[in-house]
Specification:
This protein is an alpha/beta fold. The chain is 40% helix and 23% strand. It folds into 2 domains: 91 residues, NIF3 (NGG1p interacting factor 3)-like (Udp-n-acetylmuramoylalanyl-d-glutamate--2,6- Diaminopimelate Ligase, Chain: A, domain 1, 3-Layer(aba) Sandwich), CATH 3.40.1390; 120 residues, NIF3 (NGG1p interacting factor 3)-like (Udp-n-acetylmuramoylalanyl-d-glutamate--2,6- Diaminopimelate Ligase, Chain: A, domain 1), CATH 3.40.1390.30.
């Protein structure tokens, strides 16, 4: 697979979501080298550390969910310098990967062994909408917490705000720390809301609304969507090696 062939695959994988976010800087190459791609590494974040690890694996392409955003001042420039130095292409896809059918929320539902996803996460009227899934056999508050911690391989903060068993859950991976997201989950009669960040107001509103709240890390609630993405690429072009990059759990509590 050449870099141009990888790039040409993106419209097939992400379809309308590329058009939706075409002018928003939500996907694309941070650094691009036209070459034969024999090794791909993937991670949630573009950081100097993930670039260093990609170079250790000798990869031709690094795929991440996040770019090194401008508000992480100066980090993007360092990453680009290192990518250029080692001639590694880097491609990221942010919001398109959050909302495509195989994306971040769907991937976490799958890892949590949900029985049915009743609605996918999506983006409508300039706002994010969580995905919703159902367990046919309800879990206790602690059982879902333990399952999430096992999947993410990290501590999870959790608040039990009712005594019901958990059957219906909403997920918005990453920065789902807006109380409006929890309000939506409550309106859909969800028993729990799972995300990767929280604020005081997230916790306050979840308690007020009577919905259980589970918060892992931004990084590890989203990594499985990147993994799904890489596997989709491999289905189209099987002849490359995959190297998952293990990022530090710097967000763990």
């Amino acid at each position: 697979m050449k870099t141009s062939e990888f790039e040409g695959l993106m419209p097939q994988l992400f379809g309308e979501w590329l058009k939706e976010f075409k002018d928003d800087g939500e996907y694309g190459f941070t650094y691009r080298v036209e070459k034969e791609i024999k090794k791909i590494a993937y991670a949630t974040n573009l950081t100097p550390e993930t670039v260093y690890k990609a170079n250790e694996y000798g990869v031709d392409l690094l795929i991440t969910h996040h770019d090194a955003w401008d508000f992480i001042y100066g980090m993007r420039e360092v990453c680009v310098t290192e990518l250029e130095k080692h001639q590694i292409s880097h491609y990221f896809t942010h919001l398109p990967l959050d909302f495509v059918e195989f994306g971040t929320c769907t991937a976490l539902f799958e890892r949590l062994r949900i029985d049915e996803i009743t609605s996918l996460s999506t983006f409508q009227d300039e706002r994010e909408i969580p995905g919703i899934g159902i367990y046919y056999t309800a879990l206790s508050f602690s059982e879902l917490k333990e399952r999430l911690e096992t999947v993410l391989d990290e501590p999870v903060m959790a608040w039990q705000n009712h005594q019901r068993q958990v059957k219906k859950i909403a997920i918005l991976t990453g920065a789902g720390n807006n109380s409006a997201l929890i309000k939506y989950a409550k309106e859909q009669d969800c028993d729990a809301f799972i995300t990767g960040e929280r604020t005081l107001y997230t916790v306050q509103y979840a308690k007020f609304a009577g919905i259980n709240l589970y918060v892992g890390s931004h990084t590890y609630t989203e990594i499985f969507g990147v993994e799904n993405f890489v596997k989709k690429v491999q289905e189209a072009y099987p002849d490359f090696e995959i190297f998952p990059i293990k990022e530090d759990h710097i967000e763990s509590f």
